[in-house]
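Notes from the pairing session

We agreed to fold both candidates in a single pass and log them together. This is the raw record for the first candidate, unedited. Please don't reformat it; downstream parsing expects exactly this layout.

Candidate A
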Amino acid sequence: MSGHDFIDILKIDIESAEFSTLATIIKPYLTIGKPLPFGQLQIELHLWHKTFEEVLDWWQMLEEAGLRPFWTEVCFYV
């Protein structure tokens, strides 16, 4: 609507849907070899019901797209 074609920071907190949503967004860019339309991704990960292998595959997709972690904060709920 504003004519922008690049997002500086994309923030996502979608309660465990981040895995499928980001795969849907990122995979087409990987397929055609184009850079992502955003520079940084701020995301809250919900690892409920995810195996290590599922998270690793997803994380490697993010890295293949050029994203790198630069901060982490662990939140423990009691």
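Candidate B (folded immediately after A)
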Amino acid sequence: MADPTPGEILASLWRLAGLAPEPLGRVTLTGAEPVLPSSFRVGAAAQATIAAATAAAAEVHRRRTGVAQQAQVEMRHATLEFHSEHYLRLAGQDPRDPWDSIAGTYRCGDGRIVRLHTNFPHHRAGVLRLLGCNGTREAVAAALRNWRAFDFEDAAAEAGMCVSALRSFAEWDAHPQGQAVATLPPLRIERIGDAPPTPLPPGAARPLEGLRVLDLTRVIAGPVCGRTLAAHGADVLHISAAHLPSLDRLLVDTGRGKRSAQLDLRTEEGRARLRELAARADVFLQGYRPGAIAGHGFAPADLAEIRPGIVCASLSAYGEVGPWGGRRGFDSLVQTASGFNHAEAIAAGTEPPKVLPCQALDHASGYLLTFGTLAALLRRAEEGGSWLVRVSLAGTAMWLRSLGRLVDGFAAAVPEFEEIGDLLEESESGFGHLTALRHSGRLERTPPFWALPSTPLGAHRPVWT
């Protein structure tokens, strides 16, 4: 059987969300794979997930105004948006910092490979403490020769660190966590509480104008969701905390369109302020380790009591099920553990591991969260209720794998910044003059844009406008 087309992938996501199919007749998908070098259908995943979010935004606008509009997503633009943090400049300079010096892959004493994610200082310190060595690649490599890969993966997880061992698809499929997520859909939407229907307010210049989103996310996947909701006019308030680490270089890209405030949820004052904000929010988006935000009194059930009719959107690494359900994780670790880095290397004819050409699991998960959130808002307007939208990097990985493979995927090359000028826009930001990718989901009547610049964390007060 032939692999699904991007249009067929989009239609399947739409059905999964429980939405009527009519809006899909107003979606145009152009272009062809491959855009980035991969044996996996990164382009199809990008185009379909961004189209799902764009079409859902258009449908929200139609419900509010009675005016339908065409949506369009071009393959090249969408695929490169999956690499958006790579394509930006501040005052003409590349602001990206290198990964931590000991992050990456190592061979253990049993000959197997592990990947360390040490970009947060406490994760770096914890790994070095576990290994009992200093912070050089040579020392880490020597220490890991005293470990078996799977043993170190488990020991690191027990210590709250972020490590994964390289597996093949067959090994992941046989692993208890692989089996636990094998049947997870890429997007789960469920009603979690009773509330009367919340009609979408009539009339709006932009699809999500007047809708309030609390964004408690970091790194890429969750922030991409908040950024996309902001592109369609939502009031997105990003909440961080001064004591928590952050990859600030990513904020330049993912912070566009948002206000940024800080609250310390370890204090009753911080929790009380967040409860006040949640009581007036439409969406509560969070991407911390499963149980972390819930432990402060903001589990989905708690939020449904605070604000009946709220839409909770939650991101996890490994799916909140199975033996790894509460484990910390990042895109690169899930790629390694779930077989992608092994399979990509085999397809390329190189020695494993070989990473995907972009953080595809992160970006796809971000747009799936966006789509799920908008689908839940549409269903809330008609059916009532409070809603929970769940996406996991591992579930997204299984979905990407299900889309099939490309025999000519490595014929593409990663475009240089100078080659994509037609996709870029310029603006001022809290970090300086910014050149970055425009959003690839186009709407004819309400083109998406970011009304606010990205800013450093905590630049605003924790209040709704």
